Amino acid sequence: MASAKILVVDDDPAIRNLIARYLSQQDYEVESAKDGETALECFDQFSPDLVVLDVNLPDTTGFILCQEMQSRTSVFILLLTSLTGEADKIKGFDKGADDYITKPFGLAELGARVRAILKRQRSVADSEPRSLVYGDLLIDPSRREVYIEDKLIPLSALEFDLLYCLASKPGRAWRRSELLQEVWDYDYEGEQRVVDVHIGQIRKKVEPDVNKPVLIKTIRGVGYMFDRRDKER
User: Fold this and answer.
1) Are both 121 and 201 inside the same structural domain?
2) Which residues of 212-225 are buried (b: 16+ CB within 10 A; e: fewer)?
3) 127-174, pLDDT tens digit by residue?
4) Total tally of structural domains belonging to the chain
5) Domain OmpR/PhoB-type spans what residues (predicted)?
6) Hey, which residues does 8 pair with through a beta bridge?
């Protein structure tokens, strides 16, 4: 299998070069950029599988860049920042980030996060999962696309993985900790709220009425369940 392609975006040359050099040593194909404008140019030419993206850039923010990149492809995003508040983390996830790591950080930890994110991509490619169809809803894991009434629904990479996980086992009540282990494949102690954030984003895109969800239901005291009965009527 070809090496994953990673774009590193950070305005600090020392950090940018350190990350790029480390990831290159891990056999990834790596490009780097110092600001948002350069990052988008490189993004279109390089077509990365994952972007390690600093939140604070001289000409934009990582939050804005994250949304822009994910409007172009279903790229994975690992946000890198010195912000440590829970609100900042939730904002990152709300903008579609797949993971979030704070400065200062260890390269071994960064490598673990990168492998965990890319493992989801490999597992989809290796297992040749089947498409799921429930009434007007189509989830195609090969193309990583979701359609409702033949209309393409734009989802971030992580939103797609989370929806597919739920829909592949309809009727199962998932605990948040189980979803974190299944989808993120990483230890997110104390970060279970990120599941709620992403479920909320998915509901905005696929539910007929986000205030009365019928596709992804909340199981009080447990977590969430995909209910196919509403889609088979």
Assistant:
1) no
2) ebebbeeeeeebbb
3) 456 889 988 999 998 888 899 998 999 888 788 889 999 999 999 999
4) 2
5) 129-228
6) 32, 52
